[in-house]
Amino acid sequence: MRALGSCVLDPGASDDDRRARVIEAMPACTHLDQVLVTQLPDAVAGCEDCLLTGDPWLHLRICLQCGHVGCCDDSPNRHATTHSQASDHPIIRSLEPGEQWSWCYLDEVVMRIPEVRGETRIPPSPLGG
Ligand SMILES: [Zn+2]
Ligand SMILES: [Zn+2]
Ligand SMILES: [Zn+2]
Predict the structure, then answer these.
(1) pLDDT at 90
(2) Ligand nearest the Cα atom of residue 61
(3) Which positions ≥6 away from 60 have C-beta within 8 Å?
(4) pLDDT per residue over 93-129, tens digit each?
(5) Mean pLDDT, residues 72-78 taken together
(6) Is the pLDDT of residue 4 over 80?
(7) What is the CA(90)–ligand 1 centre distance, in A?
(8) How far is 64 from 28, CA to CA, in rounded Å?
(9) Among 43, 69, 98, 112, which residue has the fewest nearby CB atoms (within 10 Å)?
(10) Rounded distance from Cα 123 to ligand 3 centre (Å)
(11) N- to C-terminal Cα distance for the chain?
């Protein structure tokens, strides 16, 4: 965690300096131009990779660059993270009912992306989560 207060306590800084430092102090995702999926699917069958192997998943995440549906880091196989690392796709969004957050693996920030619309029907987790 970087110190958030340093810019406020520097009376000698110009407004531009202060603004630049505020932006630097508040991490933001710089990969939103890689969000190509702005309409969520109506329904998915589950984690694509777990379905292939017959493995159970806990929570579902969708890749906002290509639409790959993978499972969360609390799932045994962590396919969403595996997919992001294997394909250099930085941003996922939760597909869990009522959850609208996205996560950038590179910036490690949680955010809401209002351009991404829709709600996806998902089956219950095989692990009961
Ligand atoms: Zn990012
Ligand atoms: Zn999976
Ligand atoms: Zn992807």
Answers:
(1) 98
(2) 2
(3) 44, 46, 47, 69, 70, 71, 72, 94, 95, 96, 120, 122
(4) 999 999 999 999 999 999 999 999 999 999 999 998 6
(5) 98
(6) no
(7) 6
(8) 17
(9) 98
(10) 21
(11) 31
The bound ligand whose nearest atom lies closest to the alpha carbon of 80 is 2
Cα separation, 54 vs 72, whole angstroms? 16
For residue 77, give the ligand nearest its CA. Answer: 2
Report yes or no: 76 and 56 within 8 Å, Cβ to Cβ.
Answer: yes
Q: Please, which pLDDT band fits residue 5 given cuts at 50, 70 and 90?
A: very low
Question: Tokens at residue 73, please?
Answer: 């880091």
Distance 33 CA to ligand 2 centre (A): 26
What top-level class would CATH report for the domain 32-111?
Answer: alpha beta
Ligand with an atom nearest the CA of residue 49: 2
Sequence spans of domains, the chain: 1-28, 32-111
Distance 127 CA to ligand 1 centre (A): 30
